[in-house]
User: Fold this.
Amino acid sequence: MTDEVTPEKYQATVDEFNKAKDECDKLKDSVQEGCNLANHWGWMIGEEKIWAARDKMFEYIDKIWKGLKDAAEGLLAPFTFINYAGQWKADIAGAIAPAVTAVTGSQTAATHWEGWGAKAYEAARLDQKNAVTATQTVCKQIGDELMNVANAGWTYYKDLIKSVTGFLTKFYATLGKFGNPINLLSEIENGVKVACDFADAVVGIVLAVTEAFHKQYQQRVNFIAMEIATPGFPNGKWPASAKDAYDNQDETDNWSIAG
Assistant:
């Protein structure tokens, strides 16, 4: 069974993302501290190499921070989709339910009325009945489409958090070795590489956002299709007003009480 997002689950994801983002905001301080430690051994490996590596790491950290900042702009959007999905599937569909029951359970016009107008209405009544019944289905479909969008956003941010967490674990492990003169230059170069690799991954983040937008556009297409293909209406489309179709303007053959 596919795990579906809820407001509580998504709030937990938002909290995790913000925590990871805050950790990345502290990276420059951590890099500076690590390089200060490494500089105790600068006479051995060359101070200029330490500070050049620090500057490179700062550059990559700036790129990482920009990517996370851009990603954070859409962080609250899934909340909107989750809430609207609930309204369509429960509130709106629930409000329609009594009308559906009334229309599908009511007696035919022929039971109480006769005349040309009554006959014309009776001919159209089945279409009305089908259309009203289909309204509940449409509400559920709209709710499902909104949940698809919310779940796509949830998945995107969960994957992003895993990526950031993995980077932080690896990067801090490398910084922790900056105070040890053994293989120090190699560890400093590795710190630059780890930061560089994740900065390049920001490109993947942008692509993921683009993919999310494509999915949202597809949901929009699905919504439009629902509007123009509604079961119960002629050709699946909402009709123009047909109020005059039930009255032939003939006083001798108009609506009248049956019997």
